[in-house]
Specification:
Radius of gyration: 24 Å
Helix content: 55-70%
Distance between the termini: 64 Å
CATH architecture of the largest domain: Up-down Bundle
Number of strands: 6
CATH class of the largest domain: Mainly Alpha
CATH topology of the largest domain: Rhopdopsin 7-helix transmembrane proteins
């Protein structure tokens, strides 16, 4: 019994989706004893399984969404001129595959260096999320007629948020260490289980909470400014008889709804990282990190595609153009020009 390893039984009996024991003879008794005498261990195994499923599901969602959007992406991104938004879009869309694949590989490859991989994926994921936030800022900047004051405000916000995150990462420490070995039953010899539990539950740090809180504040400002401006533009258009849309339909047309979908995921991750340090809470940030990265990428990329699709339809039909756009002049690649209340057909310009 002392040599029993998890996941190595010839006939398997699954306890808490992870504990493996022989179904015959004393095997069932062993599994029941494990659950009763080591309840924390059983909970950790259940959380470990959930972390793995969450990361795999996030990667699957990323692949699925990428396949679904191949046609509009080719039409509204690849066939357009190179500019700032196009570069940010492509980087966010495809760099997410890199850290998502790495974290999935780390979860199911116990022999990998957990510390180094976690450091890389955390920094790379944070950088990617910062760029998606930059895309959202550019979008909101277009709503405010490319106001120089708004541009300066967003640049300062983005740089301050980036500075806080850089400081936090440079001082990354793990002040809360947990004795995982004491929670593992003595008859569990599978080194993969030992390594995985140490990796995800061996320690935690409140420094990560600082990073996510700064992200939350930045996104909160963007969402608030976007919703307010979108509402004011909708009210103006309704008063002047230029649209009969209801507010929710207007939010969808202008892409504001995507902001409202992104924000709750950031709130959830920030709350998770603020939980009191305990061995059972230590794995929650790892559980939330990959979904946050993937959801940010999917919704931000869909925002860009949606805005361009709506703009093209309005230009072809000659109807009211979206008030919220980024214009890119054919001779000014990469330059964000003023978004006016005139139609794009009159402007003769492309849109982001």
């Amino acid at each position: 019994m002392s040599e029993l390893g998890l996941g190595k039984c010839p006939t398997r009996y699954l306890i808490s989706r992870s504990v493996c024991a022989s179904v015959r003879g004393p095997g069932v008794l062993l599994a029941l004893v494990t659950m009763n005498l080591y309840p924390t261990f059983s909970l950790l195994l259940s959380e470990l399984q959930t972390i793995g499923c969450t990361k795999v599901a996030s990667l699957a969602l990323l692949i699925f969404d990428t396949i679904l959007t191949l046609k509009p992406e080719y039409q509204y991104i690849w066939q357009r001129q190179w500019n700032t938004v196009k570069v940010l879009y492509l980087f966010n869309r495809y760099s997410t595959f890199l850290d998502s694949i790495i974290v999935v590989h780390k979860r199911f490859s116990p022999g990998s260096d957990c510390s180094e991989i976690s450091t890389f994926t955390t920094i790379f994921s944070g950088f990617g999320i910062a760029l998606t936030e930059l895309l959202l800022m550019i979008r909101t900047y277009g709503m405010y007629n490319s106001s120089r004051k708004i541009l300066i405000f967003f640049l300062m916000t983005w740089l301050i948020s980036g500075g806080i995150n850089f400081w936090a990462i440079s001082r990354w420490t793990k002040p809360f260490e947990f004795d995982i070995e004491s929670l593992i039953p003595p008859f569990v010899s599978d080194t993969g289980i030992h390594d995985s539990l140490k990796c995800y539950f061996g320690s935690t740090s409140l420094i990560s909470a600082i990073c996510y809180m700064s992200l939350l504040v930045g996104e909160g400002v963007i969402v608030l400014m976007t919703v307010i401006k979108s509402f004011l533009l909708w009210r103006t258009a309704r008063k002047e008889g230029r649209t009969e849309m209801q507010l929710l339909s207007w939010f969808y047309k202008e892409g504001t709804i995507f902001y409202l979908f992104v924000f709750p995921f950031t709130v959830m991750t920030a709350v998770v990282n603020k939980l009191s340090p305990s061995v059972l809470n230590a794995g929650l940030p790892s559980m939330a990190e990959t979904p946050l990265r993937v959801i940010h990428t999917l919704l931000t990329c869909r925002l860009v595609l949606h805005v361009r699709e709506v703009a093209e339809q309005e230009t072809q039909s000659g109807t009211l153009a979206s008030f919220i756009d980024f214009d890119e002049g054919s001779k000014m690649t990469g330059t964000l020009k003023h978004a006016n209340f005139t139609s794009r057909k009159q402007q003769g310009q492309g849109v982001v």
